[in-house]
Design brief:
Shape: globular
Number of domains: 1
Radius of gyration: 17 Å
Order of helices and strands: EEEHHEHEHEHHEHEH
CATH architecture: 3-Layer(aba) Sandwich
Pfam families: Esterase
Number of strands: 8
CATH topology: Rossmann fold
Helix content: 25-40%
CATH superfamily: Alpha/Beta hydrolase fold, catalytic domain
Protein name: Esterase
Structural class: alpha/beta
Largest sheet: 8 strands, mixed
CATH class: Alpha Beta
GO molecular function: acyltransferase activity, transferring groups other than amino-acyl groups
Organism: [Clostridium] leptum DSM 753
Length: 259
């Protein structure tokens, strides 16, 4: 496998930021690979997926490029008091990566996935720009923004919520994935959405609320849950299942399936 772990300059963020890119070792000079933008959670960074999952095996098994950015605790949002992280993730990063790496420019080859806060970010990107992403996977997504206040003091401070969504959290509604899903429903192109969660996850109720809401929305939606908590044992399995859902293995007979 080939990989890039380094720093890039973002004009949207007006600073340098870290990036990890994992590329299959089958690369030929004219190849352009499908890409998965893989997003980290609230307390994570660009190293989490490569350290905590079998993303390296999956890149080879499915001939995928994984792009793993870093956004700190921004909730993948153009912050009210802070950098424009949503613009960076949804616009600047894809354009930059297609210039630097052998990534296919086709919508049908472009996917976005993430865990927890990153699950929310993946849903937000795919629902906001369905013309850009063929599919989206969200693992244990922190996707009901109004419920975040339940976890203040444990996971976040109220001032962090204000920095992201405004002093009165007034930007939460327009960034709510349910609002974005209803807007996306009106569009011609719709992403295929795949969501997983552990039944013992402390934010399991958010996934259940999303699942129940999506029953009445005309967007392809798959939901799976099983015993598990908010941890990488579940997210690694979820990543395998998402790749199996969206892609075809290059050599299935010689690939060891852990699930």
């Amino acid at each position: 496998m080939a990989s890039f772990r380094g720093t890039i300059r973002s004009e949207a963020l007006k600073m340098k930021t870290k990036l990890t890119v994992i590329i299959p070792d089958t690369l030929q000079s004219t190849d352009r690979y499908p890409v998965v933008y893989l997003l980290h959670g609230l307390s994570g960074n660009t190293d989490d997926w490569s350290d905590g999952s079998q993303v390296w095996l999956l890149a080879k098994a499915y001939n995928l490029i994984f792009v793993i950015p870093e956004v700190q605790r921004s909730f993948y949002t153009d912050m009210e008091f802070g950098p424009a992280y949503f613009t960076y993730i949804s616009q600047e990063l894809p354009a930059l990566c297609k210039k630097l790496f052998p990534i296919s420019p086709k919508r049908e080859d472009t996917y976005i996935m993430g865990l927890s806060m990153g699950g929310y970010g993946a849903l937000k990107c795919a629902l906001k720009y369905p013309e850009q992403y063929a599919g989206c996977a969200a693992f244990s997504p922190a996707c009901i923004l109004q419920d975040l206040e339940k976890y203040l003091g444990d996971q976040m401070d109220y001032t962090e919520l204000q920095a992201i969504w405004g002093m009165n959290l007034e930007k939460m509604e327009e960034n709510d994935v349910r609002v974005l899903a209803k807007e996306c429903e009106k569009k011609t192109l719709k992403p295929d959405i795949f969501v997983t969660c552990g039944t013992e996850d402390f934010i399991h109720d958010m996934s259940v609320k999303l699942k129940d809401f999506m029953k009445d929305v005309d967007i392809p939606f798959t939901y799976r849950e099983w015993p598990g908590s908010h941890e990488f044992y579940l997210w690694n399995k979820s990543l395998h299942l998402a790749c199996e859902h969206f892609f075809t293995r290059v050599d299935p007979e010689n690939y060891c399936n852990i699930i």
